[in-house]
Amino acid sequence: MKTFVISRKQDAARRAALVERLSALGIAFELAEGVDGFALGDAEKRRLADFPKMRRVLRVLGDGEIGCAVSHQNVYRRMIAENVPVACVLEDDARILSSSGEAWENGLSAGVAEDKPAVKLLTDRAIGATWAIGYVLNRAGAETMLRFNSPVFMVADCWESVRRRGLLSVVWDDVPRVGASGLPSVITPAGTPPHRVPLPMDFPSRLRRAFWRLRYGLGFRI
């Protein structure tokens, strides 16, 4: 199975531990250069992201979140262009929990059939479908994620929103294969101001918000 490691060009030190671990386990991988959302100009952000749609769901993404989502989408485009049926995608702060390369490969794609859009999250199920740090995605799932979130209006790990719409199957292993290394976030670095639209207090605005959240699988909350 092809494995992609998403990492920004300037983050060699950040990905070093993961690269060393994958190499030690004999797991072949390809680096997928991440997009630095903080380096994007306004015109480029408007091209890559759908800010009007973000405002309708009252959740405007920060620059790092936009860069992260586009980085994952670039991997999906590679999967489609190269006709990759199933791929493992890791972020550079992933920590491999498997004890050997054989343990890692064994059943890695189980539950991800090639004919239906599906993603297998490699993290602990207790955290819910909210992480993109490590997962297995099929080509149909890559196509689905691109259709749903391109241009970007949601975070990369919007699995639950897509699942609620019946567009993607989300499965887990019984035992997690990937954990977080504990490195500081490069998506929302310390001191980064929040990019959010305040919750409107008037009832009509809250109804509109509930409609858009329901439509995009964000949960019905007024």
**What profile does the largest beta sheet have?**
6 strands, mixed
How many β-strands, per DSSP? 8
Contiguous runs where pLDDT drops below 50 for at least 5 residues: none
What structural class do you assign from the helix and strand content? alpha/beta
What is the overall shape? globular
Q: Can you count the helices?
A: 8
* Termini separation: 43 Å
Succession of helices and strands:
EHEHHHEEHEEHHEEH
**Radius of gyration, whole Å:** 18 Å
pLDDT averaged residue by residue: 88
* Strand content bin: 15-25%
Give an overview in words.
There is one protein chain. With 222 residues, this protein is an alpha/beta fold. The strands form 2 sheets. It has a 6-stranded mixed sheet with strand order 2-1-3-6-5-7, with helices on both faces. Strands 4-8 form a two-stranded antiparallel sheet. Helix 4 (63-81) packs across helix 6 (139-149). 36% of the residues lie in helices and 16% in strands. It has helices spanning 12-25, 42-48, 51-56, 63-81, 101-105, 139-149, 159-164, 203-215, and strands at residues 2-7, 30-33, 86-91, 94-96, 118-121, 134-138, 169-172, 178-180. The protein contains 8 helices and 8 strands, in the order E-H-E-H-H-H-E-E-H-E-E-H-H-E-E-H.
Summarize the structure.
The protein is built from eight helices and eight strands. It is α/β, with parallel strands linked by helices.
